[in-house]
Amino acid sequence: MAKELKVFYKTLTGDVLVSSGMIAYLGAFTSAFRNDIAKSWVAKCMSYNIPSSPTFSLTSVLGD
Predict the structure, then answer these.
(1) Chain-wide mean pLDDT for the chain?
(2) For labeling, which of 14, 32, 53, 56 is most exposed (least CB within 10 Å)?
(3) In a domain, 34, yes or no
């Protein structure tokens, strides 16, 4: 568990950034669009050297 938390702590900034965008887009757009835009946002985070998980999952960031 400690190893998982260490990785999660490193990627927290980008993951929370993408999560906030996903929450803003929850009601207005389809899930397919949200998945595509999340991939785009993760790629943008990586291009700006913002640490984030390579694959995004809202439930993994915010919990069940």
Answers:
(1) 89
(2) 32
(3) yes
Tokens at 37, concatenated = 């835009």
pLDDT at 64 over 80: no
In a domain, 58, yes or no: no
What's the domain range around 42?
10-50
φ/ψ region of 51 (left if φ > 0, alpha if ψ in -120 to 50, else beta) reads beta
The type of residue at 27 is G
> How does pLDDT run across 27-54, given as a tens digit for each residue?
888 889 988 999 999 999 999 999 999 9
Contacts of 10 (CB under 8 A, 6+ apart): 51
Residue type (1 letter), 3: K
Structural domains in the chain (count)? 1
